[in-house]
Fold these 2 entries.
Entry 1:
Amino acid sequence: MIEVRFVSADGTRIQRVQGAEGERLLEVAQNAGQPLEGTCEGQMACSTCHVIVAPEDFGRLVPASEEEEDMLDLAMGAVRTSRLACQIMLRPELYGLTVQMPGGHRDMHRR
Ligand code: FES
């Protein structure tokens, strides 16, 4: 299993969750009760699955497609390391991936 960590929007809570290889980060987050709507179910048409990736983990992800970048431009509170959770498939190399829910303080980016 691959461990991922979800940080609450205000940065005060961290939830560690195990996901399976090939699972989408969006599904892992939703199964864990994280507040990601994922309205379009991965069709890259909503941006409600927006998460902020920890800067140290960002480079481990497969780069975003142009379509994803376009959706992120519309996402509320998007930052340089924002991604759509529906576009991130879990791989063993992503063990320990940390993402924050958007909308609150951006504690991970203040360091
Ligand atoms: Fe809609 Fe990811 S679920 S863009």
Note: The longest strand covers residues 2-7.
Entry 2:
Amino acid sequence: MLDGKKSLFSGMQATGTLTLGNYLGALKNWVTLEEEYQCFYCVVDLHSITVRQDPAELRKRARALLTLYIAAGLDPVKNCIYYQSHVSGHAELGWILNCFTYMGELNRMTQFKDKSSKHSDNINAGLYTYPVLMAADILLFQSDVVPVGSDQKQHLEIARDIAERFNSVYGDVFTIPEPYIGKVGARIMSLQDPEKKMSKSDENPNASIYLMDDPDTIIRKFKRAVTDSDNQIRYADEKPGIKNLMDIYSAATGKTIAEIEKEFASSGYGDFKLAVGESVASVLKPIQTRFDELSKDKAYIDSIIKANAEKADYYATKTLRKVQKKVGFPEKIR
Ligand code: ATP
Ligand code: LTN
């Protein structure tokens, strides 16, 4: 809770171009939550450097991501949209929480295992303690809910464990956050390997739909999507490719799986793939147009970055002061 309103935090890394998975699994849900919650949406650039980045490229992508949050429909006055690196409380609370996290807990994190096998030349301590910084992000804003895709569930659990551990020593300092995982689109799979999640860091561009892909590219990628050979549009675990396309179509059109099965009862994969492609292209079109307009308005985006960093810093500092006092740091003489 913050100022009597339920609070919400979420973030994305500027590690690549956002995919349809990021949109359907996270961003799309975010837009519906701004009335009910005090919302903080962060571009988590501190997290991004757990993998080596080109500095100019990171800065560019981070700004594009922040702009995309707005283009996707987040009102930057109602929602606090900002860069993690502009609010030093994230790193400061992260350090304190490191001292309340066990190595055994971190050893169990699947994202660490995945990322360290992908980046075996750079298994750094930041990659290992990533979930602690993520816990700090969430707890800094006394977040009640955290909307994420299902791959982040394990990180949410550790954030709750850390908060409960801290509270059990020092009293009720942190709100215990709940994950908010949308019903449709929580796990969009790769178009080339439907056993794997669609990911912005996938090397194969045909595996992902990027939010900035033009309609022809989108339709072509869906046409090439890996499916099976029985040519029936049926939602079943043994048909992961078709299941994924049905999930995407459902999230893009609002139709239920039963409605989709009925609609395509007498169609083949070709027609279905085309319909999925067209529905996705039409969902993305207005976001792309808005993104292009916003990107040209440097002064407007700068004003949002400045105002929201101040707002986020205000709330972050409030929690941080409380935590510093609890753990026994001396008060600053002002
Ligand atoms: P990376 O490839 O760099 O690990 P990513 O594509 O997995 O990135 P993140 O930045 O880790 O994306 O995630 C941003 C948000 O999007 C998170 O809430 C995450 O759960 C959600 N998300 C990511 N991929 C998917 C997906 N395939 N389906 C649904 N949600 C997803
Ligand atoms: N780990 C998340 C990004 C992230 C996040 C957060 C999400 C960092 N801090 C706090 C929700 C809340 C990811 O990789 N998707």
Note: The first helix runs from residue 20 to 30.
